[in-house]
Amino acid sequence: MDDLEKTTEEQPILNDDGFEAAEAPVAVVTSAKKTEPRTDATEKRAENARAEAKKASRPRVKPLKKKEHWALKITLISFPLTIFVTFLSDLVGSGSIVVIALLLLFLVLANVLFDGIGVAVTACDPAPLASMAARKIHGAKIALKLVKNAEKVSNICSDVIGDIFGIVSGTCSLLIVLKILRFTSETYQQLLTIMISGVVGALTIGGKAYMKNVAISNSRNFVLFIARILAVFNREERKNKNDAKRNKNAR
Q1: Model confidence at 220: pLDDT above 70
Q2: Mean per-residue pLDDT for 83-89?
Q3: DSSP 189-230
Q4: CA gyration radius for the chain?
Q5: 69-81 burial, b for 16+ CB within 10 Å, e for fewer?
Q6: DSSP reduced 3-state for 51
Q7: pTM of the model
Q8: pLDDT at 214 > cutoff 80
């Protein structure tokens, strides 16, 4: 039995030189990981990604902005307004030269004033007005609304009213020339037209330059002044003003 046990013992492996051979390295074979099958959630994600890619590749149709709506509205409003003002100037044209001259002066001054309003609301800082409106100072709430809608207010005052008054003032200048020609010869017609147009243009341009300087340097006071004039036609502002007077008298 001992012999059998000896014979069953492992015998070392010898190489050609008679030395014990080193064990051969055992190659470790790693099994490749099996890819997991796609679930319904991953398929849905892939479909959503493809759908989003298709939407991004399509040209987007931009909706009509409020600014474009405003441009259309102001164009439609300007047409009847211009006709109405021109009609009034024609009615005044049948009067005396003094009435036409007064109308021309009013148009020039109004053109300068409204241009200053458009500049003031654009240059004004809304933060002080918001603080004044919170303290319920007379006219501050309307002034804040004007500043918040500065683009529209500037467009109405500087462009719409300014251009309409400029056109009508040109018509009034021509009417004044025609009135003067009744008392003078026609040889002075061209000279009179040039002189009156030059005076009207100089007054308008110089007045606008001066008013813009005032409107920019005193924008808050300028806007408050205009807002307090508009507050006369606002029921809420009138009520707040009356309440403030009552509280002041009660003290």
Answers
A1: yes
A2: 79
A3: HHHHHHHHHHHHHHHHHHHHHHHHHHHHHTHHHHHHHHHHHH
A4: 44
A5: eeeeeeeeebeee
A6: helix
A7: 0.64
A8: yes
